[in-house]
Amino acid sequence: MLSINKPGDRVDNYRLTLGGKEYIPIIVGGMGVNISTAELALEACRLGGIGHISDAMNPFVADKKFHTKYTKAKASKHRESRDSLDKTSVKFDLEDLRLAQLDIVHAVMAQKKGDGAIYINVMEKLNMAAPGDTLRARLCAALEAGIDGVTLSAGLHNGTLKLMADQPRFHDVKIGIIVSSVRALKIFLRSGKRYNRLPDYIIVEGPLAGGHLGFGEDWREYDLRDIFIETLRFLQDQDLDIPVIPAGGIFTGTEAAEYLQLGAGAVQLATRFTITEECGLPDKAKQSYFRSNEEDVFVSTLSPTGYPLRLLKESPCIDANIKPQCEPFGYILNKDGGCLYIDAYEATPLDEKGRKLPVKDKVCLCYHFSKYNAYTCGHYVYRLKDTTHQFANGDYQVLTVDHVFNDYRYSTDHRIALPEPQERRVKTA
Q1: Does the pTM exceed 0.85?
Q2: Fewest Cβ atoms nearer than 10 Å: which of 164, 281, 367, 421?
Q3: Which of 268, 228, 286 is nearest to 51 (CA)?
Q4: What CATH topology corresponds to 11-282+387-392+399-410?
């Protein structure tokens, strides 16, 4: 634990300054697929912080939000490969991808209120069968649509700046990078110098974060505080004045304030926002998060991205045997049409009736994310039950972004403010 140098200190005593503008130093992470909804990000922005949306599977998300047909069109175009494990011909239409990104970013920016900002989380590991072309389409469309900032995640992004260097807003939009080591940061800084574009902020994500991790199977050997301090010292040695933002496992406002005392520009948070009304998770998943215990959380090798993935053991995606869904989705396909889930599916034998047995090694991440069957989570998900009230039937009261944000902002002494008790709401058809 960090030592408390200022008893009673709180997050509201600090401000994050980016581009001459001040923000409440609270950033809500960009959780996909549409878990960090526009509504969640807009509330963080209204409250004076920074809210993220995610661009994970945005053609699919646009279809759900705006009744477009990007996913159906892609599935129809590639229907001949549905019964084959050869997906080399399955590609995204780049114009559809661009339009889907524009749909989503335009919509959220048109609703923006308050003194905060809206950023988008863009993952390099979404290869989408053409890594450079699809990443460029997503990045440039987000800039074109007026996004305030772009956070680059899930990869080293050594060539990412080149992909958007000719976009008119390249030097105006805020650009940040998520790293889990100084080594990874050095690689990105070298690319930044080539394009005269250093990051405006650096998010240091530790091993207790949710979803995919930037560590190997030795993730337990690392500590967010150590990586954060090492990053600060490296930047000081390089005479670089770039805000460093820790993320992953910061559960109370006091813990956040302790990092701010140490020199953090802000903190990035996610886990406690997953069980808010504005979050895109279905109620079933939110209640699973509330009910979870520490032993229910594990870091797996199930993701076909190759990154370790933290999730709940009761996730419906585990031991499923869905046929690869690359025709409508295909977000993890590499440039050669390959995916580790396809390999695992092909290697899984049939039972005596000719049915595919459960696929043990990997999950079809695209399909299961589209169904919210992968209960990805932060390490401290099991503490969520302590932040709210339990109803007589065993369910837990869902919170609001306003409540969680302000608890982080104003709380002291590791106290967590419970919400005003509500009657259990029964959903009607």
Answers
A1: yes
A2: 421
A3: 268
A4: TIM Barrel (3.20.20)
